[in-house]
Amino acid sequence: MASKKPPASTIVLILFLLITFPFWIGIIAAIGGIMAGVFGAVLGIIGGVFGAIAGIISWPFKMFFGWHHWGWWPHVHINGFAVAAIVILAVLISSRNKK
Fold first, then answer.
1. Which residues contact 63 (CB under 8 A, 6 or more apart)?
2. Is residue 84 a contact partner of residue 64, using CB atoms and an 8 Å limit?
């Protein structure tokens, strides 16, 4: 029996796939990289929102209980208890003047 030769279209298709294989790998890698970048951006946004919420929640505790170093308020060592006392005094004085 004689062996059959594949049709010319099959040979052209195989050559086309062999020649364009690096391009397909590059396109697949680019799509994977874009997906990984978007995933990283979403995680970064979620982390940023979580950090902002944690900062907003912890800010009163830092202010009133004297936690954390206040770098933007130099040479004044006053904690939240003193700030609360000043606010209460201001409210009492202002309410006394209204009578």
1. 80, 83
2. yes
64: part of which helix (H) or strand (E)? helix 8-65
**For residue 70, is pLDDT > 60?**
no
Q: Which residue has the higher pLDDT, 81 or 2?
A: 81
**C-beta separation of 79 from 60 below 8 A:** no
**Do 84 and 65 contact (CB within 8 A), yes or no?**
no
Whether 80 contacts 65, CB under 8 Å: yes
Distance of CA 27 to the CA centre of its chain: 27
C-beta separation of 66 from 79 below 8 A:
yes
Number of other residues whose CB lies within 10 A of the CB of residue 19: 9
Residue spans per domain, the chain: 8-98
Q: Please give the share of the chain, as a percent, with pLDDT higher than 90.
A: 29
Q: How far apart are CA 99 and CA 94, in angstroms?
A: 9
